[in-house]
Amino acid sequence: MKHLLILVTYKLKSGMRDAFLKTMSESGILEEVLKEDGIVRYHYYLDESNPDIILLVEEWLTAEHQKKHLETPHMTRFQPIKAEYILETIVEKAEI
């Protein structure tokens, strides 16, 4: 069975990377995501040449697992964090 791979590029408001990462760490959202059924990996990667870019790599067993993820309370809690720190989100999906 193929997994769902999602690459999420966050373009942050200028100079907000450290504050965003700290807020995410303190929120407990990442720990909750990693406990979800169907999650394989969920990792942030920093762009060394542009401090206002973060890449999130998500891998899910199925698209249904990822769909349920988007409906969780912790993802609802993520929305105001996203609004505070992120200017643009680019999402790319592939089966692997």
From TrEMBL:
InterPro entries: ABM_dom (IPR007138), Dimeric_a/b-barrel (IPR011008). GO terms for molecular function: monooxygenase activity. Keywords: Monooxygenase, Oxidoreductase. Coiled coil: none annotated. Pfam families: ABM. Its EC number is 1.-.-.-. The keyword Oxidoreductase applies. The keyword Membrane does not apply. Residues 4-96 form the ABM domain. This is Quinol monooxygenase. The lineage of its organism: Bacteria, Bacillati, Bacillota, Clostridia, Lachnospirales.
